[in-house]
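Feature request disguised as a bug: please show the residue count (345) next to Protein SAAL1 in the output. Example input:
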Amino acid sequence: MDRNPSPPSSEAEEEGDAVGSTVYSKHWLFSILTRLIEVISPEKSEPGVNPEEIQTELDEEMENDICKVWDMSMDEDVALFLQEFNAPDIFMGIFAKSKCPRLTEICVGILGNMACFQDICMSISKDENLGQVLLQRLCDSDSPTLLETSRLLLTCLSQPEVANIWVERIRDSPSVYDCVCFIMSSSTNVELLVKVGEVVDKLFDLDEELMLNWIKSGTCQSVGPSTDDSPEELPDFKIVPCILEAAKQVRSDSPEGLDVYMHILQLLTTVDEGIQAIVQAPDGGKETWTLLYDLICHELCQLDDPPIIVQEQKTVESFLEVLREADPTLAENLEKRFPSLKVPT
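Example output, currently without the count:
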C-alpha cells in the first residue's frame, strides 16, 4: 500500500496502437495511466510543501482526460486493456494517497465500469486488498465517491460468481454497517440513497445471516476497524430508523427508491428479529407506524384506487400483512379508510 504501483509495460507501444477492435489509442491510454502514477508519486511533492496540501483538485486537462477514460471503460476491449496494464493497482494507490475527491470518484467509477465484465469482476473481487480499500470508501465524506462505490458494489453483488465473496467480506467488516447507516440516516442526496438502498436490499436478499447481524447490530456498538475516513463519533445506529429516514428522503423524488426501501422493510419482516426491530423501537414504534401510515396514504395509494391497483403493489400488500400482526388497530383503521387495502385473512 505504501509503495507506488509499477508503471504499465511499454509493450503497448510495440504492437498495433488500436485497443482491440476500437479506435481508441493504446499509447494515449498508456500515457494517462502513467500520469495517474505521477499524481500520487512522492516526486511530485515540492520541497517544504505538505503532501496532504497538494493535489486536492485536478487540473482541467487531467480531469477531461481521465473522464474520457471513464467513458471509454464501458467498452470491454478498453476494460481488458486497463486490467492488463495494472489499472486496479494504480487506482488502489490513488485511494491510499490521493487527497483529491474528484480523482477518487472517477477511479472508482472506472472500476465500476470494468466490473460489468465477468472476468474482470472476478479479478477485482478476488483481490482482498482492493476489496478492503473499496469498502473503506463507504466511509468517505464525498457523496459522488459514495455513489460510485455503491454502484460498484451493486454490480459485483449482482454477479452470482462473485456475490458471495462480497457478502462474506462485508459480513466480516462491521464498520460497513455503521457507514451505510450513517448514509441512510444523514444524507439528503436522493440518487445516493437509492443506490445505497439497492445495495442493502441486495445484501439482505442474498444473505439472511448478514441481515440478522445488521438487525442485532443496533443493540451493541460495532467493533469494526476504524479508518481515517470514518465519520467521527458515530452514534449507536439501529437499522430500522435509518431505513425509515432514507425512505422519507426519497419518497417525493424517487418512487422507485421508495419501493426499494419498502422492500427492505419487507425482507426484515421475513424473520422474527426483524419484526421485533420494527415494532419495538424506543418510542414504541410510533414513528415507524406514523411514517408508514403517511406513506401508504399519500405515496403508495389514494382513496379512490381500485383494489386491482393496490394488489399490483406487492410491497404494500406484504407489509400490510405484517402490520396487521404487529398493530391490528392501525391496520384496521387503514383498511376502513382505504377499502382497497383489505388484507385477506
